[in-house]
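::Amino acid chain::
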Amino acid sequence: MKHLQVLAALFPLALSAASCAAVAEAKSPPPAESAAAAPAAKPKDDDESRKKVREVEYARLQLDIAKLAADSARASAKAGQGAAERELNALKAEREHFKKVTVALELDAAGLGVDRAKQSVAEAEQELKELESMYAAEKFAEATKELVLARGKARLELARRDLDLEQRKLEALKGFEHKKRDRELGERETKAKLALDEAKATVKKTDLEQRLALARAEHAVEDAERAAPDVPKPAAKPKSDAANPAQPKAEPKAPAKPAESEDKKPAEKGV
């Protein structure tokens, strides 16, 4: 009975101590959880820093790409301008050659054809007159006479038609063909001038566009580097030997022989 009374007296004290410990444990966070919650921000900071470094790398690569694209675009525009200039010069030379050489040659050739046709007509007329005078006094060979005279008349008629054709060719050259070809060459030359002006404008436009693209790429690099100041800047590329061919390479010096100490010299003499 006495033992039961003692236990009954101690039981309320044990309950109060346990409740106090539970309240204290609830108020103070466990040390393991607080220690784990403190460094939770570090991975996030590392991710942000890594992103900034990558942004700097991407911006630098974009700048390199923009430089290559600018060089290519400018070279292409300059090539187009050069092609347009060559085309215009070729058309000018062709038109000048047509006016000074081709026209005179074709007119001379057409005039020569007319002169030959006139000569053929004159010869055919003379032959026909000779035949007619020769056969006029003879009273025989009527069939032969008619045949020979018919051939002479036909030859004369063909010569006259040939002369008329050559004269019309000459007039066509003077009045139409040469003017038409000169006009066509002039139109081609005008188009070539417009193409050259357009090519020059393209060169200027391309230069401005590439300057703008390079400026944007450079500003993007500056912004990215400013956002990540800890990222080291790229080292300047050394100039290759091909860029300075006049400067010969320095020959490697032979290794210097080690100097003999003064302590060894008297010993060698004594030996």
Observations:
- The chain is about 80% helix and 0% strand.
- Residues 80 and 237 are 33 Å apart (CA to CA).
- Residues 31-38, 241-252, 254-271 have pLDDT under 50 and may be disordered.
